Amino acid sequence: MGAFDVRAExxxxxxxxxxxxxxDSLEALLAAPAIDAxxxxxxxxxxxxxxxxxxxxGKHVLVEKPMALQLPECDAMIDAAQAAGTVLxxxxxxxxxxxxxxxxxxxxxxRFGPLRQITAFxxxxxxxxxxxxxxxxPAQGGGVVHNQASHHFDILRRLAGQPVTEVTSLVxxxxxxxxxxxxxxxxxxxxxxxxxxxxxxxxxHFDSDELMGWISELGHPKDALQHGAARRRLTAMHGxxxxxxxxxxxxxxxxxxxxxxxxxxxxxxxxxxSCERADLRLMPDGIxxxxxDRRHFLRLPSPSGPRAGVIDELVNAVEGLCPPVQxxxxxxxxxxxxxxxxxxxxxxxxxxxxxxxxxxxx
Length: 362
Prior knowledge:
Strands 13-12-11-10-6-9-8-7-14 form a 9-stranded mixed sheet. The termini are far apart. The protein is globular, with a radius of gyration of 20 Å. It is an alpha/beta fold. It has 2 domains: 2-93 and 307-326, Rossmann fold (3-Layer(aba) Sandwich); 94-299, Dihydrodipicolinate Reductase, domain 2, CATH 3.30.360. Helix 3 packs parallel to helix 4 and helix 5 (98-108) packs parallel to helix 7 (149-160). It is built from 12 helices and 14 strands.
């Protein structure tokens, strides 16, 4: 195992904490014969170039979502992996959350009849956490459309087991002092008669973790009394303090620490699945099932480790046990969905996935 980061302090910290090698360049990391797979967690605009370089070096790749910002970049990444015979997985995303995967299995059995609709919403303080400016610039993949809607689309598609066909949406930028897309509401159609609504707000007012038993997105207990803390901290910052706070929170920074093991599963806010004969509500520790004449709780085992689902998917694919669900083709479709969301809001009408595909082919 080894790591490369442009920050020397992050490289040193990683090598010390995990007792492994550190590399002074990406090229050195890719040339290392002991490295079989690469996790790419760099800014969105770098994913394509780095993923292609890794595939050419014969490395399997786990790349953060969104896999890229433009469809030609997605295609080049997919082609590179196929040409090299390497595995490409897009994640982590909340499509890998254990409650999502277990609910998807239940839906696929048709035990509760066909899927009819999904209701999903998440209210956070995303916009007031320390950010580099690129993280708020929609042109560079900043804001909530690519960063957060990709989670929602992955969840919805995993649960529905079918592709999205059309999106109608409205994207919001509500704070003149914090420019960037901070909210969206969308109506999503699937290939069948099923539909979904998905809503996100990153403006730090209501916190939907309240509906999740005050379990945070990463599965840890959360203090309800900390309401508004992110906004207050940001308001108190001046000059370059926000950039320095962002660096401090990252791995190797002054405030960056490896998380303690989570007692509950990760989640992305409220999710309610409506089948013809039951509703399924996803929770951090299991799934509530509401049938015609009873309600019962399917408790899930505690998580075996952070992001275990996506790591298992990568390892199983590399070992030839089963192909990944969230592969490059999947990641490309997520980028299409996010683009449909942005375009629908800008044009004030429904946008089909096929429409975007045809436009890209011109």
